[in-house]
């Protein structure tokens, strides 16, 4: 077929000249485009002529029944591969059946990579419906059909003129469509050059980017605020949307059902309404979400062929509305949810290496979500325990002013204080268990509740202390509690101490005296050994009770705060209100320990008025 080969060579030369003209005169594309369209018609005629000549070629005697068709097909393939413009053979459903090297070069994909894939996925979303109509028209009528669109693949975008004509392939039972692609805006790789995505530098850069993402994600999820507040998922999705995908969706399993938790949409597009539709879409209807949850492993779709994978919204399939070209979904933790990333046309598709790094991100995110849930559960328990060891408000005690300060320590501690009514007057108590953590706090809460409850029937705080001691010993917790309780009747206060620090009396003249205190902590022996004392508190005098955490606070040199420093501060507060007294003690201790608080601190002040 020398004439045909000559015509092909001439066509290749003219196409090369048109490319050169486009590069030399980018501002004047109209003449070049008109000429290119004319060459497109020439290419279509050459293909038709080649097909007709192959059909008419003589058969050898004795050849098998289909030998001629096989020879025709072989020759047609050679012509197809040598054709100087991008040509793609599609079946009636738009699936790629053949692709010539010129098309692979233009799109930047390996030879044969697109075979078996849906061609409409390369077409701009807004023109996919038009493409299908043109495809159907070419098949039904046999008349050529052409239109302008954009093709996107491997991060490259081309504006092209796409011409389609019906094609009958030897040996094929169904009719095909030959799609000839004429780039209007051409991106041409240098002859013989490696594709950028295959270069060693690009591979190293991609690997470094993935490693950088893991470091950023770990830093973000290990932040203390990510434990205290439910910010892990929103922060993670924002990071991924900023650096890794156009759309990021997090679905979290609650009560055995996946529920949409976070959606991050592209920032540079007016997609508010679409984002709301994606947020309201039910992940339980998403095939890919259910698949990842069922298998416990991620999936990657380099090219989205099934646009219903992510379910539907008001505008149809979610992926269609997004303009999705590539999708990746991984588990969050161990069945805690699914993280889905979507890239749109014009961006590099997700690869297996991306799936591997996102699997790690999903694992980290799952650990963070579980840690947050555990932390918040413990925090709620700690708050409940704290509420059980300190009253919300101090009641009014006739003849006295009262004020208190309570600072929790670095962990769930065991100090408590309380003020409550008793027969004929008021009672107060203060103390703490020798230990920390939830068990110590629960023992402290039991002692506080016991003192309050038994004071309803007993008129002597010492009898109440002894009964609480019996109950504590019977519990067998192994913890002991230092406590002091007092009943107030008029100007008289009767105190019972079980191993607690002595209360301080602040007189009007600034003199500070400590009461006896002492005794043996509760919970050590069945027979309690308490120290009992009766005081008269005149008008203007203040009785101050305080916890072990106050006097044992230390400064940077390891020195304890101690009773002497406390007495000095209290002496300067003579005649002041109880609220002023407790604030002065609090401020002095804060300055002494440079704001550090390890143990709980309690200060309770009663002043006669």
TrEMBL record:
Record PANTHER family: STAGE II SPORULATION PROTEIN E (PTHR43156:SF2), STAGE II SPORULATION PROTEIN E-RELATED (PTHR43156)
Name this polypeptide is given: PAS domain S-box protein
Gene3D superfamilies attached to this UniProt entry: 3.30.450.40, PAS domain, PPM-type phosphatase domain
Organism for this UniProt entry: Nonomuraea longispora
A Pfam short name: PAS_4
Domain PAS per the UniProt entry, residue ranges: 72-142
Entry keyword Hydrolase: yes
MF terms in GO: phosphatase activity
Alphabetical keyword list: Hydrolase
UniProt keyword Hydrolase present: yes
CDD domains: PAS (cd00130)
């Amino acid at each position: 077929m020398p004439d045909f080969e000559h015509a092909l060579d001439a066509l290749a030369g003219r196409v090369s000249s048109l490319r050169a003209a486009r590069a030399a005169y980018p501002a004047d594309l109209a003449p070049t485009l008109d000429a290119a369209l004319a060459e497109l018609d020439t290419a279509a005629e050459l293909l038709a002529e080649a097909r007709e000549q192959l059909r008419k070629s003589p058969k050898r005697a004795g050849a098998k029944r289909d030998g001629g068709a096989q020879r025709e097909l072989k020759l047609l393939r050679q012509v197809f591969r040598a054709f100087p413009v991008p040509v793609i053979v599609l079946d009636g459903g738009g699936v790629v059946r053949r692709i010539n090297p010129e098309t692979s070069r233009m799109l930047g994909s390996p030879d044969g990579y697109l075979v078996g894939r849906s061609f409409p996925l390369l077409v701009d979303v807004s023109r996919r419906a038009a493409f299908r109509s043109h495809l159907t028209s070419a098949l039904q009528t046999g008349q050529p059909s052409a239109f302008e669109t954009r093709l996107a693949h491997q991060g490259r975008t081309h504006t092209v003129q796409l011409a389609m004509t019906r094609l009958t392939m030897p040996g094929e039972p169904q009719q095909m469509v030959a799609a000839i692609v004429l780039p209007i805006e051409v991106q041409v790789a240098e002859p013989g050059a490696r594709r950028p995505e295959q270069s060693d530098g690009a591979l190293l850069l991609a690997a470094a980017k993935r490693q950088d993402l893991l470091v950023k994600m770990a830093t973000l999820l290990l932040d203390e605020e990510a434990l205290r507040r439910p910010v892990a998922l929103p922060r993670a999705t924002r990071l991924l949307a900023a650096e890794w995908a156009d759309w990021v969706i997090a679905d979290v399993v609650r009560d055995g059902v996946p529920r949409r938790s976070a959606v991050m949409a592209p920032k540079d597009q007016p997609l508010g309404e679409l984002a709301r539709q994606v947020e309201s879409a039910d992940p339980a209807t998403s095939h890919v979400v259910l698949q990842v949850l069922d298998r416990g492993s991620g999936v990657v779709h380099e090219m989205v062929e099934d646009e219903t994978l992510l379910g539907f919204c008001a505008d149809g399939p979610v992926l269609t509305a997004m303009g999705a070209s590539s999708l990746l979904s991984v588990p969050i933790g161990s069945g805690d949810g699914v993280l889905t990333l979507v890239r749109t046309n014009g961006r590099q598709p997700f690869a297996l290496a991306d799936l591997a790094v996102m699997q790690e991100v999903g694992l980290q995110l799952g650990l963070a979500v579980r840690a947050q849930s555990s932390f918040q559960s413990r925090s709620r328990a700690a708050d409940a325990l704290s509420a059980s060891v300190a009253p919300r408000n101090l009641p009014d005690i006739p003849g006295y002013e009262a004020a208190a300060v309570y600072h929790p320590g670095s962990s769930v501690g065991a100090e408590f204080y309380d003020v409550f009514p008793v027969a004929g007057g008021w009672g107060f108590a203060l103390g703490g268990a020798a230990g920390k953590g939830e068990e110590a706090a629960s023992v402290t809460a039991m002692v506080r509740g016991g003192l309050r409850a038994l004071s309803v029937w007993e008129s002597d705080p010492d009898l109440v202390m002894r009964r609480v001691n019996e109950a504590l010993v019977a519990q067998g917790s192994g913890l002991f509690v230092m406590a002091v309780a007092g009943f107030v009747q008029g100007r008289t206060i009767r105190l019972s101490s079980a191993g607690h620090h002595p209360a301080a009396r602040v007189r009007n003249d600034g003199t500070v005296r400590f009461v006896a205190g002492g005794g043996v902590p509760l919970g050590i022996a069945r027979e309690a050994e308490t120290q009992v004392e009766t005081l008269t508190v005149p008008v203007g005098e203040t009785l101050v009770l305080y916890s072990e955490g106050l006097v044992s606070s230390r400064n940077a040199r390891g020195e304890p705060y101690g009773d002497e420093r406390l007495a000095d501060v209290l002496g300067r507060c003579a005649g002041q209100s109880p609220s002023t007294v407790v604030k002065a003690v609090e401020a002095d201790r804060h300055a002494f320990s440079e704001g550090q608080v390890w143990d709980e601190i309690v200060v309770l002040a009663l002043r006669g008025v």
